[in-house]
Amino acid sequence: MDPVRLALTMRLARELGVLDLPGVRVETPVVADDELLSTVHAPDYIQAVRAAGTDPRRTDLSYGLGTDDVPCFRGMHEVSAQIVGGTVSAARAVWTGSSTHGVNITGGLHHAMRGAASGFCVYNDVAAGIQAVLDAGAERVAYVDTDVHHGDGVQAIFYDDPRVLTVSLHESPRTLFPGTGFPDETGGPGAEGTAVNIALPPGTGDAGWLRAFAAVVPPVLRAWKPQMLVSQHGCDSHFDDPLAHLTLTVDGQRAAILAVGELAAQLCDGRWLATGGGGYSLVDVVPRTWSHLLAIAAGAPIDPQTPVPARWREFASTLDLGLPPVRMSDGASATFPAWEDGYDPADRLDQSVMSTRSAVFPLHGLDPSF
User: Fold this and answer.
1) Overall number of domains in the chain
2) Where would I find the Histone deacetylase domain in this sequence (predicted)?
3) In a domain, 111, yes or no
4) pLDDT at 370
5) Does 356 reside within a domain?
6) CATH number of the structural domain spanning residue 305
């Protein structure tokens, strides 16, 4: 979670001209106050985070603070609350129509629970953004999580809320943190079908991932008819990422971003809030994938064959974090076999997809076989 990945992304997006496109605004968010944070977090947890931020040596394991995943640091509350402020501000702008799309690459902290930190995440900015839209009158918000890890915090916070559909594509919980996100997690009482989990086998690459996405996400979203789409674009599904076992390319991740944006255009009158998330290949992957995200949200997708600007490469080389990439592509095609072309019951990827379709499609009036 080194902040250098954010600095590199913004520098690359600026060098590519994305931040200077017509209609693009870059804003500094305010720090969310306790009233806003308490819409998705317990007051005692907020106070524990504030206390932890005054003494980096402090630990409070009852709140998940001071662990290897969430070490305490000075200013912990203020930094984390400002991330929430950014996502909520963008969410409100999209919902009210003052902006068609909003992106907070610092956000996407999807593991934070109502009363505990987890998995590098202190406050759940995504949940706060969704809640802000609900409080403003939204009746159906869809959340799509493409991080390699299950979006467990967002799912847990809205598990019993029939107004929020959470969809997560992630590596199988049998092989990766946080150990949740099985297909039979489908929503609480009165909200059945509003949690959709696609647990992918280790080794899944572009073709399998995109096949799974196309086989589940568009049909469910079309049946559910969201008024706004919120997405999390952790890029730790890349083959070069050190913390997981999927094998996507930047090209596959770009294709996923395009697909999410197209669904927002088709189903939500374009209302789309996107966030960052995980991603630990700090120079090679995160800046390219999230620059693609920013460009797509700005309505000006970057050609994958575009050379990475020389000035950015020179700067990245000074950081001693690995060789900087040469192009905005990994050279992959990002194509996939459509589900409609046939289901292979012996294939592990297809087994995973069918498990999800069987668990949730009937709850939306859909036939899992087609």
Assistant:
1) 1
2) 2-295
3) yes
4) 84
5) yes
6) 3.40.800.20
User: Which residues constitute the domain of residue 111?
Assistant: 4-33+86-364
Residues recognised as catalytic: 111
As to burial, measured by CB atoms within 10 angstroms (0-12 exposed, 13-18 middle, 19+ buried), residue 192 is middle
Of residues 115 and 58, more confidence is placed in: 115
3-state secondary structure the chain: CCCHHHHHHHHHHHHCCHHHCCCCCCCCCCCCCHHHHCCCCCHHHHHHHHHHCCCCCCCEHHHCECCCCCCCCCCHHHHHHHHHHHHHHHHHHHHHCCCCEEEECCCCCCCCECCECECCECCCHHHHHHHHHHHCCCCCEEEEECCCCCCHHHHHHCCCCCCEEEEEEEECCCCCCCCCCCCCCCCCCCCCCCEEEEEECCCCEHHHHHHHHHHHHHHHHHHHCCCEEEEECCCCCECCCCCCCCEECHHHHHHHHHHHHHHHHHHCCCCEEEECCCCCCCCCCHHHHHHHHHHHHCCCCCCCCCECCHHHHHHHHCCCCCCCCCECCCCCCCCCCCHHHCCCCCCHHHHHHHHHHHHHHHHHCCCCCC
How is residue 282 written in tokens? 């700090």
Q: In terms of pTM, does the model score above 0.90?
A: yes
Q: For residue 18, tell me if it sits in a domain.
A: yes
* Ramachandran angles phi, psi of 358, nearest 5°: -65, -35
pLDDT bucket at 58, cuts 50 / 70 / 90: confident
Residues 102 and 274 sit within 8 Å (Cβ to Cβ): yes
Mean pLDDT, range 163-184, rounded to an integer: 98
Inside any domain, residue 60: no
